[in-house]
Specification:
With about 400 residues, this protein is an alpha/beta fold. The longest helix has 20 residues. Helix 2 runs antiparallel to helix 12 and helix 13 runs parallel beside helix 15. Bound molecules: pyridoxal-5'-phosphate (PLP). The site of pyridoxal-5'-phosphate has 14 residues, from helix 5.
Length: about 400
């Protein structure tokens, strides 16, 4: 047997022993709260489809119409021949969502948030002749971390990690940093904890120490702010120092992402962002459907769905009081319950599965050691009864599961 195959067996055995093996579960039904896996019905509290748009009739119609009008494939990367007029229309719409927060805003559409993040960070770190100082929040999403890793691989970065709960440490480092170009990078809504980045304070520091501020709003776009424009609308900030990344596979119910920033920054990304330049543009049909989704999000339907989501979050917080477990303080749709060990988290996820609930256990390295958790996500599509049912089941499990 080839060396690599033997080695994989040995290393997977270690992953198994540490209860860290990840596995894929295949869902038979469209994304929703009531799904089926292998014929078994489950109530899902784990998708990022916060508004319930991922299987919405209006978006199903838009994707079909998009395919009829614009075709299924783009045919090439954006800079060769894959950039269609509908991509322009979408980018203008996406930029308009951040226009109140970013002067001279322009947007660039990407096929995923992961690519948008590594694109933006690697390209930005090439600005200026000397190294870029990147200040990265400790609990940032893996795609931001990987963007920083790639940028370091280019040899263009000095990296500093900061704790978003204690900005004094960040300020100390900024104060003593003589590098001309500094970039602060943070999740908007922290994806495993559900809390918000202190955007106003971070922007204040960016202003004071001449830094740019990149915010990954994967879990905020569509959900936060009156029109669902995300964390910048919600926090009422405005600055040409902000680089905003929003994803379209979560609340927007489709796929893709965008970076929105001052037009000069976007012009730079078009020249330097390798994952943008060397990857096929996503389908123009998708761009058309995303455009429809953004219109729904900012309109009456979006406002109604956000109101429903927020009342679901309130209902959950009211009904989920635990003694042994630590429900993290979160006002967003991400509601984690930290239980400690991998074994406990897995045991709990399995018990819930048997009772017909799908809430995955999240383990290291996604979260710190001994901080394994159930990560529940709520949606506007959940009913009151579903949420109350879950509260009851969890409360019973807390009492009945052996310690
Ligand atoms: C999901 C997520 C991403 C990646 O976006 P995709 O479009 O799924 O690739 C980036 N950042 C955060 C915080 C996320 O939660």
């Amino acid at each position: 047997m080839p060396f690599a195959l033997n080695q994989i067996d040995a290393e997977l055995a270690i992953i198994d022993r540490e209860l860290l093996r990840r596995s894929i579960r295949s869902v038979d039904t469209p994304c929703g709260t009531e799904i089926q896996i292998g014929g078994k019905p489950l109530l899902a509290f784990c998708s990022n489809d916060y508004l319930g748009l991922a299987n919405h009739p209006k978006l199903i119609a838009a994707l079909s119409e998009g395919a009829r009008r614009f075709g299924t494939g783009s045919g090439a990367s954006h800079l060769i021949s894959g950039h269609h007029a509908i991509h322009d229309e979408l980018e203008a719409k996406l930029a308009s969502t951040q226009a109140g927060a970013i002067p001279n805003a322009r947007a660039l559409f990407f096929s995923t948030g992961y690519l948008a993040n590594i694109s933006a960070i690697t390209a930005l770190s090439l600005i200026g002749k000397s190294k870029t100082s990147i200040y990265s929040a400790a609990l940032n999403h893996a795609s931001l971390i990987d963007g920083v890793r790639l940028a370091r691989g280019q040899g263009s970065v000095d990296l500093h990690i900061f704790d978003h709960h204690h900005l004094a440490g960040l300020e100390d480092k900024l104060r003593n940093d003589l590098t001309p170009f500094k970039l602060i990078v943070t999740d908007g809504v922290f994806s495993m904890d559900g809390d918000l980045a202190p955007v106003q304070e971070l922007l204040h520091l960016a202003n004071q120490y001449d830094a740019l501020l990149m915010i990954d709003d994967a879990h905020g776009f569509g959900v936060l702010g009156k029109h669902g424009y995300g964390i910048l609308e919600d926090q009422e900030v405005c600055s040409d120092r902000i680089i905003y990344m929003g994803t379209l596979g979560k609340a927007a119910g489709l796929n893709g992402a965008f970076v929105c920033a001052h037009e000069k920054i976007i012009a730079w990304l078009i020249q330097k962002a390798r994952p943008y330049i060397y990857s096929t543009a996503s389908s123009p049909a998708l761009a058309f459907a995303v455009l429809r989704s953004v219109s729904l999000i900012e309109g009456e339907l979006g406002q109604e769905l956000r109101a429903r989501l927020h009342s679901n979050i309130a209902l959950w917080k009211e009904g989920s009081i635990f003694i042994r477990w630590n429900r993290l303080k979160s006002d967003t749709a991400i509601q984690p319950i930290v239980v400690g060990s991998n074994a406990t988290a897995l045991q709990l996820a399995r018990a819930l599965d048997q009772l017909g609930y799908w809430i995955p256990a999240i383990r290291p390295p996604t979260v710190p050691k001994e901080m394994a958790r159930l990560r529940m996500t709520l949606s506007a599509a959940h009913t009151k009864e579903q949420i109350q049912g879950l509260c009851k089941v969890l409360s019973d499990l807390e009492t009945s599961l052996p310690k």
